[in-house]
Description:
Layout: E1 2-6, E2 9-12, E3 17-24, E4 31-38, E5 45-51, E6 56-58, E7 66-71, E8 76-81, E9 90-98, E10 101-104, E11 108-113
Parallel strand pairs: 2-11
Antiparallel strand pairs: 1-3, 3-8, 4-5, 4-9, 5-6, 7-8, 9-10, 9-11
Amino acid sequence: VQLQASGGGLVQTGGSLRLSCAYSGFTDDNFAIGWFRQAPGKDREGVSCISSDGDTSSSDSVKGRFTISTDNAKNTVYLQMNSLKPEDTAVYYCKLQNVAGSYWGQGTQVTVSS
Length: 114
């Protein structure tokens, strides 16, 4: 299983970014993909996740600002991040969970300037 995260960058407060997580290397139809983030000196935390049947959930800190979605034809999960705040600054990771286990992609840095 391979995950490739991209789309991070530097943005001003109130701006938007869209992260992408392209996945490959498995044929399991039952899986979930989540976005996590880790700020300097803090533990990694869950942000949003989506299951293969379309169910989504998000942490309270991003509800109403971040939207997770998937393009099955492209095997890609997106995280649309709007109204970004300095506290959203972190390295963002995607993780896939299926019956075989869990797999992490490399991180992508998101920096929100005040």
